[in-house]
Amino acid sequence: MKKKFIYYILSAVAVITTACGDDYLDVNTNPNQAVSATPETVLTNALNVTAARLVHNEIGAFWVGQWSPSGSVSGFTPEKTYDIQTTFRTGVWTGPYNNLEDYKYVEEAAVKEGKQAIAGIARVMKAFNFQIIVDAYNNAPYSEALEGTTSIRPAYDNGSAIYDSLIRDINVAITYLSVPVSTTNPSAGSADIYFNGDNDLWIKFANTLKLRMLLRLTNVSDKQALIASEMAKLGQSNTVFLDSGENVSANPGYLKTAGKENPWYEAYGYSASDSRSGSHDFYCWSNFFVSFLSDTQDSVRIKLLTYPVGTGADKKIIGVPFGEGNDTYLYSKISGFGPAFLPTDNTVKSATLYKNDQIVMSSAESFFLQAEAVQRGLLTSNLSAQQLYEKGVAQSFYTLASLADTTALKSSWPSNVNVKKGLKKYLSSGISNVDWSASSNKVEAIITQKWIALANYGGFEAWTEYRRTGIPNVPLSTRAQGSQYPARLLYPLSEYSNNAENASAQGDINQFTSKIFWDAQ
Known about the structure:
Strand order of the largest sheet: 1-5
Number of helices: 20
Strand content: under 5%
CATH architecture: Alpha Horseshoe
Number of domains: 1
Shape: globular
Structural class: mainly alpha
Distance between the termini: 51 Å
Helix content: 40-55%
CATH topology: Serine Threonine Protein Phosphatase 5, Tetratricopeptide repeat
CATH class: Mainly Alpha
Largest sheet: 2 strands, antiparallel
């Protein structure tokens, strides 16, 4: 009943749009118009918007070799050719900024009411959103952003300086969240659709997010002192990160009702009436991704992530080379998203995937971040890099298995999926970038496995890590007009129209050569 009640609140105050999910359930779609609501109510909606917006990770999933458009859809020309303009994927800019308006309201209202726990949550999520903006665009409005009519043409801050501020913001958030809960400082409770008001889990999330940010800086020479000092804090014995089973995930009580299903399921799967969504047949796995799973004998995840084509001994996993789009790759001829995410047409009636949690940051990613930091000698831990790496792989396996529609799994893959046995065999396979002992480049193994674990949850994050590390060695689109992958997105046309002086001051931006400050590999 509690989860259903949250949705009644949402439907009463939310403005629902369909523009790529950027403003899904957002209560503050006009950044210059103040809202009048409790911080708890706005927090619920803001958290929901963040999770729903991350669903639309197509561009990252395309450009990091996870996804491809199927042959059943035309278009996607800018994605395939990398010939992008200022009108391309503008929701990556507007979505976080709209969301940030809500978090700003929550933090300010909570501080005014003495609700430090709620203020801490809002500040963590502000850092989360601003990092996405910097990782996509580099310099961006920060210090003058979110000021409404006070600053309608905000100046741009240097991306490097924004990162410094975000790390400080996370430290402040942890201070807020560390204040004991009391009658005057209540927890967020059910208004928190990620952790139900558990401040300890929010601190773990904050530490893990900070670790993500610090590792992004590993190739930046003038950030080494910052990395060392902040890693020293994270290496203290009382520091905790997201642990096994502690995914950051949203669930306000997803229902089999239009607009209230799990947003990933509704976008790429099925409607509340069990019919395929409008984009169901448009997206599929790239051949690069499924070939990697097959070549590395990933017998468990390949069954959870994909559906085979054909029957009996002729069953095959078929992905689409990114850039292709002819009838050879019609959706009916290739492997769609598997039972961890979608049922089949034959099992959709009984499937409950519509109410699965929507993952924002996974425990698998947490372990891979820790593994990399330990392997690089940046973080002190009571676990070795190998132990952390293997925990990351295990969490990827077990999370997918916990989400899967078992009826669809058994009907598509008659052989049993034994996660524990399959995991043990996989990690001792002797295959590079799978078996720790067989991997000469340990960091490459860590990033490669994180790339798999981020599939369908975090395409943008996977693309960002590719830009930082060059891992994995993703092939160019078959329609690429050059020899480079895009290193960033272009500022939206709206910035050149409404904030022309500040946007133009950033210089001539090129998607290949105007790199994000941390992209120094």
